[in-house]
Design brief:
heterodimer; A: about 220 residues; mainly alpha; Four Helix Bundle (Hemerythrin (Met), subunit A); 8 helices; B: about 160 residues; 7 helices; about 65% helix
């Protein structure tokens, strides 16, 4: 009997909470949100902040080249990877035909391509010091641990370049086809664009991992 | 309803409004084009040419590693990129990598132009675009690790 009463109470409580709909937290300013929502917002912002803090470790490097070149390239590439990974993740709802995210996808893939260009440009600059005849990292790596150069650096050098044409092609397709990209007749365009967005994310994350691996073995 | 909407706009915090504005910037791009193509050929050309350029760059990488004279030609091709050649031994130079980037850029733009003309009114199947994309991207990725590259420094000069 007590069990039944408890069940009825729970059911009523659930019904009551559904009926009242008094806590639409997404539409309320941060001052009016409950403590749990504020904690979730706070932790997510802290986590993102900690992750973005990663390239600033370069500022503590004993090498002056790493301190400024490494920090600038690190910031540019991490920012590019974050935006590209966000665009890559939105390829899933886009593939399912979510029309609401379509305008955002167009601008997001554009900014992802722009940041990819900045990461590549700063990478070219850093690559100069990497190959420098005086105390360059490349000479040391090929002499002492050649696999780091042949496995990671070769991969890093080229696959990060793939992200730029792929990103621009995605932006162009998403813009050119407008909302009609979600029509059944354009299914092939949507599928190929989503695939290219995922490939872009794959090469960007691969570039970050391989770049970090090389940097941790020998700084600039 | 209108009152609640205006209240909602009043209470929308600045960061949400900023986020919404940034999400749709530039607005011309966010809206999309007014007259979309009737066939999938245009998108196929854009996407396949990007993957094809990556593939050609990696094939070129093999040739530059094997033939030193070809490496010089490619390096000259990329001399327009700042830092391609730099006599400072402390700062270093980009080297023939600048030419390899140029190969990617030229192949991409030229193949996009040619494919866009060829496939302008063609309806490409999902299988066709996907096969081209998959083949070129996988081949380009695999070619990063040529089995001979680690042994090239051991070859007689």
């Amino acid at each position: 009997m007590a069990n039944l009463r408890k069940k009825t109470f729970l059911m009523n409580r659930n019904k009551a909470s559904i009926q009242s709909l008094e806590l639409p937290t997404p539409n309320k300013p941060i001052q009016q949100k409950d403590i749990a929502t504020v904690c979730i917002y706070g932790l997510s912002l802290l986590s993102a902040g900690l992750f973005l803090f990663l390239p600033l470790v370069n500022l503590l490097s004993p090498s002056p080249w790493q301190r400024y070149m490494g920090a600038i390239h690190g910031c540019a590439s991490l920012l590019a990877v974050v935006v590209i990974a966000y665009a890559g993740h939105l390829a899933f709802p886009l593939l399912r035909g979510n029309v609401k995210i379509l305008p955002q996808m167009r601008t997001l893939s554009f900014w992802a391509s722009f940041l990819s260009f900045l990461a590549i440009a700063s990478g070219n600059w850093v690559y100069m010091r990497y190959r420098a005849p005086v105390n360059g990292a490349r000479a040391w790596l090929t002499e002492n641990t050649p696999l780091v150069h042949y496995l990671f650096m070769e991969y890093h050098e080229f696959t990060v370049l793939f992200t730029l044409p792929l990103g621009i092609a995605c932006t162009w397709s998403l813009w050119r086809y407008g909302d009609s990209i979600l029509l059944k007749q354009n299914r092939s365009v949507l599928t190929a664009t989503c695939f290219a967005l995922m490939a872009m994310m794959f090469f960007a994350i691969g570039g970050l991992v391989s770049g970090l691996n090389v940097a941790r073995i020998h700084s600039l | 309803m209108t009152k609640s909407k205006s209240n909602h706009a009043l209470f929308t915090p600045w960061y949400t409004r900023l986020g919404n504005r940034l999400r749709n910037f530039p607005s011309g791009l966010a809206r999309g084009a007014n007259h979309p193509p009737a066939t999938s050929g245009a998108a196929g050309a854009a996407l396949v040419s990007a993957a094809f350029a990556c593939f050609v760059m990696m094939v070129n990488q093999h040739f530059t590693s094997i033939f030193k004279s070809w490496n010089e030609i490619i390096w000259n091709l990329g001399s327009w990129i700042p830092g391609s050649r730099n006599p400072d031994p402390l700062y270093g130079e980009i080297g023939s990598y600048s030419g390899k980037e140029t190969v990617l850029l030229i192949t991409w733009l030229v193949s996009w132009f040619i494919l866009a003309r060829l496939w302008r009114n063609r309806e490409l199947k999902t299988k066709t675009i996907f096969s081209y994309l998959f083949f070129f991207l996988v081949a380009a990725t695999v070619m990063n690790w040529h089995p001979l590259f680690p042994y090239l420094p051991l070859m007689p000069k």
